[in-house]
Every structure is written in C-alpha cells, then in structure tokens.
Predict the 3D structure of the following.
Amino acid sequence: MAYLRAVLIVLTLLLFLSLAPLQWLALRRRWPLRLWLPVAMGRTLAALVRQEVVVDRAPPPRGPRLIVTNHISWLDIVVLCSVEPVCFLAKREVEAWPVVSAFARLQETVFVDRQRRRTIPAANAAMAQRMLAGRPVLLFPEGTTGDGSALRKFHSSHFAAARDLLATASGIETVCVQPVAIRYSSPAAAWLGDATLLPHLWSLLKGEPIRCDLAFGKPLAYGRGECRKAIADEAASSIASMLASMQRAADLLAQTGTPALEPIG
C-alpha cells in the first residue's frame, strides 16, 4: 500500500501542477478560487500521508491575522493548509526545491534569506501586504523544526510584519496574532535538521497513520506601540500551555479511548 500511496501522491502533484495556470490567473484576478485550490491540495495530501487532522478552534477572528505556531515537520504546512487558506514565510532555499517551489509561489509564499538579516524588512513588508489582502500569514517563530517535546526560543523579527501593516493602514487599529499549537501522535512525524524530504516521506508512507492535533489559542491583539518581543513571548507562553493541555488529553485518550477533539470534515 505504501507504493500505491506514493503513486497517488505523484499523480496528485501532477494534477495540481496542471492547474497552475488556473491558480496563476486566479491570483491575478483575485478570484476566491485562489484560496481554496491550496486547501484542496492540503487535504488531499494529508489524506494520502494518512494524517488525521483534528482541530480545536473557535471561528477565525476578522481582520488581518498572523498565525504563529511551533514547528515540527514539513507536515505542519500540509495540515495547516488543509484547514484554511494560509500563505507562509519560508526560507530562501525552498525556492530551489523542485516542484515544491512552484506550489509555494502559487500559494503566495514569502521567502526570506535567513543568512542575510537585511532581507527581513522586505519579507515583513510582503507579509504585511498578504495580510492586508485578506490572507492569513503563517509564521514559525522558532525558525527551525524540533522534535515536539519542547519549544525553542521564539524569534520576534517577523512579528514586525504586524507593525508594518499598521504603519501603512491608518484604518486598521490592531492585527490579530493567532497562537496555534501542533502536536503529532508519533515522533515519526518530526523532520529534524537537514534531513532530506523523500526518505522522510517514504518512512511515513510505510509507517502507521499519524494523528495531528491543532489547537487555536486566544488571539492576541498587536496594536500600535506594542512591543513585538512581548507579543512573541506571550504567543510562546500560550502555545506552551496548549501543548501541555494536549499532552494531558492524549494521556486521557490512551487511558480511556475517548477522544477530546473531533476530526475536521
């Protein structure tokens, strides 16, 4: 079955790649379709990799939104894209990845060179533009993946995208910073360091299905004059608290067999 799922993933990628001209046109014309093609792709890939995506959230807040979350794997992007039409900040190296780079551009990904700090303001400005246009922007403040057992330090540089948005939009008083906690049921989901993508994907296809819990925390209001470092610390604290709660829920599930959350439709 792993070989069959691998073939289906390739066919899925080819299918969505064939729709690239339509997605490009939708982006140019600002059609709603530009938002939901990536969601359809995310849900299809999540199903083929056998990710059971389980979400705990209230209705999304209105207005510009910066989603910040812990980072465990490339799967984080797949599962979050399966939930809503986000675009995200990615390292410049992703632009050189075959196939992946094409999909990233069609999802309005913002790229940043982490080795050159002077590229950060331009990336923040692009993130602000995406949020002004109605796209939630996904940020991994840790800057790299971890094994999910503990949070790494949150870097606050890209939280300044909210400040940049407020500086250019006089009619907007706050930007919503939305903390999101990600937890996988198996350490096999973790994609650490410079591990290559295909071997990790193959190990997932051969292994057992994995459950991914997403918990959306209380939105934080980033207003004019707010300290980006303080907001980053508050988001990290919120995510750490949610991860602890999710661990307790997982322990309860193991003991009783009763799930605390329901899978998305």
